[in-house]
Structure formats: structure tokens, C-alpha cells
Design goal:
single chain, five-stranded antiparallel beta sheet, 13 strands
Amino acid sequence: MSRLLRYTWHALPLVALLLASCATFRAFAQGSGWKPLFDGTSTSAWRAYQKAEMPTGWTIVDGALTKSSTVEDLISKETFGDFELEFEWKLGKGGNAGIFYRATEEYIKVYWSAPEYQLLDDANNPGDTRLTAAGSIYALYPAADGAQKRFGEWNTGRILLKKGHLEHWLNGKKVAEGEMGSADWKAKVKASKFARWPNFALAPRGAIAIQGDHQGPLALRNIRIRPLD
């Protein structure tokens, strides 16, 4: 037997192991339940709030969903109840935006119905408090300090909502949490500006939305969701 054949024969078990590992990984990935909302190439999962088409002003730049100035809010075509959402985001200096969930389209503005994961350049918005800081459950539960990166750098965000339990994560750190529908939650809503909209945060399922109607650059990438219903 030639040296090449002997090498090939002895390598066969290793090749088989690698192929089996790849198959296992593919099966795990397919069964994980994650689905992309934005994969860097297509905006097909999105449309304008209260409209059927994708609004102008949102573009794909280097694999990121990007806007440079005030544009219309985006809303996902699909709705979700319980879910886990992961995404990466960055803002320009002084930037301000948000990610909404369980959003309906019954009101003029998306934030009238939906809780918000705040996206903010904290360092250059000195008038804001921890209640409206990056990662906060906007205006309801404050975000812990020290997790955000400076403007122009990528942050990772995560929202977990299951059976009323809500968590906001920023760069691998849990920064805010609450129990939707609890007495504490209702008291906080009643004491906030959201009290004027009776259906705020009451929908059992709704869309994911991205705020575009604030000034400044915003970029998002690797947006994926895992339904937990």
C-alpha cells in the first residue's frame, strides 16, 4: 500500500467524525428556533408603520440596516407573543432611537402601544436619567450603568419576554427587568406618560418595531428572533 493510501485510510475515521459533527451542528441550528429578521442582505421582513411598503431613507450599508436622518418607523411583517430577540446596534454622537415589541398599529405612533428597549448615546444626552438610558425599559424601569460602549461602536442587545417576565440585556449584562401586567408594572405605567393610551403594553402579541423618527445615524445588524410561545 502506498504512503498516500495508508494516510488516506487512517484519516477516514477523522473525516467521518468531522462530517458527523457538521451534521449535528446543522441539525442543532435548524432546530434552535431562531429566525432572521435582518440578515444583512434583505429588508423583506419589514415595512413602514401603518403602510404596506418599505419606507425610503433606510438602506443596507456593509451588511447593516442604516438610516442617517429622520425617517419613518419600521415594523416587522410578522407578529410575536413571547420571544427572545437579539440584535447589534450603534448610534452617532448624541443619537436616540428604540426597539419596540408587541406593537400594534391602532395608534398614530408606535410607542403609544408598545414597550421600548431604549437606544441612546448616554454620554452625549446629559439630560436623560437611567430611566431613559440605553437598555432601559423606557420610562418604566431604569437601566444599570456601565454596560454601554461609546457612540460609533457596536453594542449587542437582547430582549427576553416569557410569561410576562421581561428582561433587557446590553453587551452581555442584564440591565433592566420587570413583570408585565404586575401591580408594580401597572403602577409605573399609570405614573408615566403612557397612562394616556389605555391599550399601552396590553397586546398579547404584536410586531417588532424600530424607531426612525429621531435625528441622527442609526445602524442595526444581525437581528434575529426566537419565538417562545
